[in-house]
Amino acid sequence: METAELLLVLLIVVSAVVTLSRRLRVPYPVLLLVAGLAIGAIPGVPRIELAPDVVLVLVLPPIVYVTAFLTPIRSFRAEIGNIASLAVGLVLASIAVAAGVALVLVPGMTVPIAIALGAIVSPPDEIAATAVLERLAVPRRIVALLDGEALLNDATALTVYRVALLTAAAAASAFTVAPAGRFVVMIVGGVAIGLVVGWAVAEIRARLSDVPVETTISLLTPYAAYVPAELFGVSGVLAAVTAGLYIGRRSSRIMGSDVRIAGRAFWDMLVFLLNGVVFILIGLELSALARDTDRATLLALGAAGLAVSVALIAVRAAWLAGIGAWQRLVLRERHPLTASEVAVLSWSGMRGVVSLAAALAIPIALPSGSPVPARDAVIAITFTVILVTLAGQGLTLPLVIKAVRLGGGDDDRDAEETQARRELIGEAMKRIDDLYERWPGHRPLLDQLRTAYQHRADHEDQLDQAPGNEAEQELVEHRQIRRDVIDAQREALADMRDRSAIDDDVLRKIERDLDLEELRMEA
Questions:
Q1: For a 10 Å CB count at each end of the chain, is N or C smaller?
Q2: Is the entire prediction scored with pTM above 0.90?
Q3: Class of domain 3-408
Q4: Nearest C-alpha neighbor of 313 from the set 77, 66, 98, 85
């Protein structure tokens, strides 16, 4: 099977499996992993050989960039202490524990390679956790902590990973002052390059108004930050993250509405496809590894991977419990992490795309020409950790959330949204009153706009006064009324096209206006 044909098959499988996962209410990364295992077990399916760095360079920059772009800065700032503890302290502790377990259980493992393994498996991937959390509507604090952790833990882990490989290449057996200093340089340099790239891209996009061009620039931005940073020997992940944070903060002022709508759809599709294909690749690689490794070695490496997985879960739970106890007993914070939050966060540490990319990016040989020690063992343990955490924690996380009664909605976010909508309506009506003097010849239009906004204001007040079920029912009925009106226009528009009263380009232009109106209604 040719590469293009195999890629087409994988995309079809991704679409089908994700659709099935939503029907079964199972996190889609879990089913994609199972699908990859099943496809890899089919006789005659070729093994996909990926060159080192391909997954890391092609997949990682856009994923971390869009995560940073969409990060809510206020929530990030509010939880910066917890996020830093998880993304730096917990990652370093996880690296140390995983490296220690690997050194004990894996023959031929060296200290630098063990640390590289720890860096590979230490950062959780929030994709699987988010798929569960969004469905169960957990409090915003949980989502903010996981998103913030995912934003920075990759940078911490991959910086340690780079330093460990450099140390291995220098044939050192342990970290020295020089690698520690290099660690700091990589962090500072990555942030600096990300700021420069973010500022330059923001200045360019502020002067553009072409949707395809801006979308193309947005796709190139993470690579424009990541690749130069890696060439200069600093953290490419931090560069992409910094650029994403900077541009995301300025997006409301440098992008038009059409660019934001098209861009969000484009990035949703791109991240979905990247994650989907990579999770299937994990399954394919696991299946190929099982075929190519003798049973005794496979069982030994599987046992080592299981031990590393248990150690990672334990250190995460202990770290989070320690944070909660410190906040409650020593700092006496007003809102420390509760036992329920600790339980959910502890069980949300699934590994995925980043771990796979880093494992596959380990070079086959050192600069001296000698093979990298225990490279196959590192890859096998990484795949085992991904399998154990994705399948074990991913499938049971909904049960944990329900057991600690943490799902059910976020009242604070709903209240913020309601208040923001109310204030926007008031601001719109003030501006309409001012426009009567500026546009005296357009009073009918201004009267129409004022009536529409007054209706919205009255509707918000009625919803506040109505019981919950009545308010929800009224919203459903209002949406249905508006949808019926829009559907009638769509049917009439299609009928005009069918009887050649209008051409397809006219249909699409008007249809876009109806689609935007429906999106506003759904919002």
A1: C
A2: no
A3: mainly alpha
A4: 98
